[in-house]
Amino acid sequence: MPVFSVSRIRSLMPDRPAATLATFLGVSLMSASALAVPYVLVPDNTNYLIVGFTQATGAPISIEGKTPAVWLDVSTFVDTSSIGVLRHAAQVGSEIWISDQMSGIIHRVSAQYDTPRYLGFIDTIPNARGIGIVNGEAWVASGGIGTAGGIARFNTSAQPLGIFDAEDPFDVYAFGAFVLTANIAQNRLEIFQTNGTLTGPWGGLSTLDFPLQIVQRTSGPIDEIIVVGNSLPDPGLFRYSVATSNFLGRILTQAFLPFITVTQPRGVAVLGTGELLWSSTQGVFAVNPTNNLSRTLYTGDNFVCNMADTVDFAKYCEGDINNDSFVDDSDFTLFASAYNDLLCPTLTNGFPAGCPADLNGDGFVDDSDFSTFARGYDRLLCP
User: Fold this and answer.
1) What are the beta bridge partners of residue 122?
2) Domain map of the chain by residue range?
3) In this predicted model, what pLDDT tens digit does every residue of 177-190 receive, in sequence order?
4) What is the CA radius of gyration of the chain?
5) What are phi and psi of 275, to 5 degrees?
6) Which tens digit of pLDDT belongs to each residue from 243-278?
7) Which residues lie closer than 8 Å to 326 by C-beta, 6 or more apart?
């Protein structure tokens, strides 16, 4: 049983800044552990894993007690019989959202380096694909929303903000004051205004076929858009000038493994070495754009790895239950409600439905979670 009433303590608290919650409770403040090293996360759909690599070098993530490269085992939280295709793991504030294309679900996990927690899911996006952050919102490319596909918009608390039509988009990417999408029906990029109005095709003439993911990088004096072209006969990473939209060339993706040569990329991310990380069947690789030579970062038998994205675990904000970058009274209201229920919800199949207020991941919302919440509440503003 709880040793105190959350509502009672809150009613006794003075408003900020006369006294803080942690001061009132006698809770000592500890600085949040921050990881200054960005990582790249890639779903390994075959093994229900989210694997990670340092953005600086491509070295596999190393977490005590886990196999090298493994950040998250999705099957720990989700029944594997309900998993379709884990397509994209993207950072949305303090959370990592993982799209499951075939199941039409977005799984929400805390962006914690060593102890990620399952926070719940969104199950309203048929054929969910790439996720982009546009003006502080999460935009999800869908093959099943709208007339012939579209974009579903959410705030960071996972509340729906509306949809707009886009023809068969696979990825969505914030591009200055506009948005780029990868149209797999027309094999081209398209540019939209942020209100959902289509401006038209974007990018010079190329052999791009089945575009899957869009990123941006600086190569010397040139800013480039890099697009994954998945299909034969010319798979690879297609380069376009940000300034002119002209096609600049294709980077070959070739990985020579025992008994197989891998050529068709599925995801891409920029590494600090100047290489481009690319994922495919059989694993994750890094290509040197100057000579088209790839090295292996992660591989095995019958792997299928999908889209890649850079994340910053230092942005995790303990106590920010509604994921709005503040730990304030709105979070306290959510915490108090969960605290009164005490036990986190569980689905009928035995897997958790999500419990954002369970800040230590033990299946309960209790005094230990409140101590953690108090630290975040006193800091107020997230990293």
Assistant:
1) 106
2) 6-32+326-379, 39-313
3) 999 999 999 999 99
4) 22
5) -80, 165
6) 999 999 999 999 999 889 999 999 999 999 999 999
7) 320, 380, 381, 382
Where b means 16+ CB within 10 Å and e means fewer, 107-123 reads bbbbbbbeebbbbbbbe
The position carrying tokens 């085992």 is: 73
Cross-sheet strand order for the sheet of 160-165? 128-134, 137-142, 150-154, 160-165
Tokens matching residue 184? 């797999």
Element holding 133 (H helix, E strand): strand 128-134
- Fold for the domain defined by 39-313: Methylamine Dehydrogenase; Chain H (2.130.10)
CB-based burial, 176-191: b 16+ in 10 Å, e otherwise: eeebbbbbbeeebbbb
Angstrom distances, CA of residue 79 to CA of 74, 84, 300? 9, 11, 23
Closest CA to 48 of 348, 351, 361, 303: 303
SS3 305: strand
Q: What is the pTM of this model?
A: 0.92
Q: Taking the C-alpha atoms of 102, 104, 110 and 111 in order, what is their torsion angle to the nearest 10 degrees?
A: 60
Element (DSSP H or E) covering residue 339: helix 329-341
Q: Residue 241 is encoded by which pair of tokens?
A: 């000038």
